[in-house]
Amino acid sequence: MSTFRPVCWYCGESYEIEPIYTCRRCKGTLEIHYDYEQICSKAYFTRLAASSGSEIWRFRELLPILPEGRTISLGEGGTPLIRTNNILNIANNQSLHLKMESINPTLAFKDRPLAVAITAAAQFGLNEVVCASTGNTGVAAAAYAARAGLRCTIYVPESTPEEKRSAMEQYGAVLHTVEGHYSDAYRVAEEMAVARQAFNLTSTYMNPYAVEGNKTVAYELAFQLGKVPDWIIVPIGAGPLLSGIYKGFKEMKLAGFTDKLPRMAGVQAEGCAPIVKAFHDGEADVQPWSGPAQTIASGIADPLLTYPADGTRTLSVIRESEGIALAIADAELIRYRRLLAEREGVLAELSSVTAVAAAAHMQQTGLLEQNATVVSIVTGHGLKDMSAAINHTKGSVL
After folding, report:
1. Averaged over 380-396, what is the pLDDT?
2. Total domains in the fold of the chain
């Protein structure tokens, strides 16, 4: 008997384990529910905290895979947590830690959700996967599909960095450039997944199996810190990473392994910030970004044009955690990317830098409590968008 099932996040309708993306009753996105009484206990997490394993599959009882099936892995997970020395002002005994998702096998956090989703595809007996991507999802999808022996087709917007396009093709994926922005690629991928009967890996809340891989960041953070951080700062497009991390901490609290939850900060670029706008306007629902998506942080430039409910789901998690949503200007991204590299030896993707710049902003504006422990998620490696950074700074003085 399975210990998990897909359930509608909105109306609670439950489904069998199958390739399903939205609720057939209300069209809402899904999440995975588990038999927590059977598998989730303080002893479970205590045992794992003391174990020597590092890959995400040590948490397989809390991932949506069948116990008898094989897992598709490239060694994802177990990424370091490093404490910064020169980003935050040391007053008030506040500390900033970086969760280095940038050293996963394809240099981004997406390896976690894609490893789970590709494993699910293989267990469902599917032979093709499809996704829309601004870059990192596509690279991870291509790599894990190659590992599993599945065909992979990827739809990218015109703004996708050349480094990421090349990587997708090197892994053997079929790549299509879609005129417009990410929401346009999302629409095409959704249509083609249906037409080709392929598993849709698009990294919004589209695939409920993929989203579960993000929880493993939370488990690792609790083990590495020995406690729950006060704040976790996450770059967000639609926001499934933020939601997944928070869900992981809720599971640990339910099990009695922790006694508190972190506050979640979602960060977007000023040039495309629909979730931030709704947060600051006091709106219950996120609306699509009305203007052009203009930012060098292409990895989070998601206007949510045809799926604003995904943003609403993330917004609700931010508010549930008593967190915050904030936007960072491109000029600040360039400045903090340089500071992070020169002062800490960390070269981060521009989208990732939002989480570091946000930490500094939160300290400067008094949002961080005295003695606060803060974690910023470095979601991708700077080598993956060097051309964008170079083109933006060419001829300017920092």
Report:
1. 71
2. 1
Domain annotation covers residue 360: yes
CATH number, residue 229 = 3.40.50.1100
For 228, residues 6+ apart whose C-beta sits below 8 A from its C-beta are: 221, 222, 249, 258, 260, 261, 262
- Does residue 205 form part of some domain? no
- Within a domain: 101: yes
The string of pLDDT tens digits covering residues 328-338 is 999 999 999 99
Q: Domain limits at 296?
A: 81-108+210-393
Using a cut of 0.85, tell me whether the model's pTM lies above it: yes
